[in-house]
Amino acid sequence: MAGRSCPVSCVLVRATGVSCLAVLLCCLLAVQDVAGQKRRSARQGAGASSQEFARLAAQAAEAREAGRIDEAIEFYQKAVRLRPRWDEGWWYLATLLYDRDRYAEAARAFERAAALHPQAGIAWAMLGLCEFQLRQYDAAFAHIQRGRELGLVQNEELLRVLKYHEALLFLLKGDFETALQRLDVLANQGLNTEELIMALGLALLRIPILPSQLDPTSRDRELIRRLGWAELQAAQKNFTDAQREYERIAAEYAKTPNVQYAYGRYLVSRRDDDKALAAFKREIENSPQNGLARLQIAYIKLKNREPAEGIPFAEEAVRLNPRDPLAHYILGRLLFDLGQTARAIESLETARTLAPQEPKIYFALARAYARANRRADAEQAREMFLKLNKAVEEAENRGLKRADAIQEEPEKAPERSQ
């Protein structure tokens, strides 16, 4: 076992702070994904391949197990040239190259391993991690997502690494809510690194860059770190420390864009609606074009059964972000609660057009159609809700669900229209 290379050592040690022992265990679990192919590959080599291939394969394994990584890489490269469909060889070559920070070569090797076994999630995931190191972020995002969707054979350490990098990619793409959701989960699980803190702060301030891309001399660096630390405390349930720091930041950076919004978001999570409303209103004063702050106010009014007070904020949110399905959805629900069913249906149908895979929109539409005595439409919306909600629940159970700026309680199926 000693000397065996780990495919995720750089990621785990440098980015997430997992111990070297955990890295080794992660590697051994990862290798199990291709272990089923090992015996078949060996038998095929003995019977169908040349003696040269058998010699190279044996030398590669001996060098790898002895920790002579560069020598093992050379033997594996020669062996896979002789037998291009040797899946075990491509896997070990890829992991060894990754361990040597030779990411471009590792990516090509993982790509070959994935092509040989397209249902092996770990190969796609490792390809994505290589592409992340190569700054090929769109490809990295697609392949990490594909790997997670296919599954990673209960490899918790590798899954943790992938969640972390996936969160960074959501941050880079500007999906700040999903980035925060993923980062908060990792923080809650005990991850506590400087890079994580900076990523949390960047997401809260809605700055779409990676922590590594932040200028060390940036005047915002202290604010980013303080916000990230406050959110880290909140995610780890240290609410007294989180509250104290959020309050200090909100006072010291009272006019900085997105600070009051971040504070309001925290207060919503603590169910302090009055203070949250005040924070969101201060954000609007600081940033008059901030539609999200208006949407948060509108939703608080919706929760508190004050639709008349919420509608102006939702309408402003729609005006500022006409392509935001969440804004149309919240407006539709407020209108429904106020008894303006026709307008509610219009807003909810717009939301459906913008987000046709979002189940809660169909839930709201089913209720609105039923009130309007549109029974067939209500039943169709109800069936779509049930279908889509099942898919969302499955994605949530696997940690793949994306987050919205507003987190609602799960809906039950609306009653059938009578």
Automatic annotation (TrEMBL):
Residues 396-418 are annotated as: Disordered. InterPro entries: TPR-like_helical_dom_sf, TPR_rpt. TPR repeats lie at residues 87-120, 257-290, 325-358. The keyword Membrane applies. Pfam families: TPR_16, TPR_8. SUPFAM superfamilies: TPR-like. It comes from the Bacteria. The chain crosses the membrane at residues 12-31. Keywords: Membrane, TPR repeat, Transmembrane, Transmembrane helix. This is TPR repeat/Tetratricopeptide repeat.
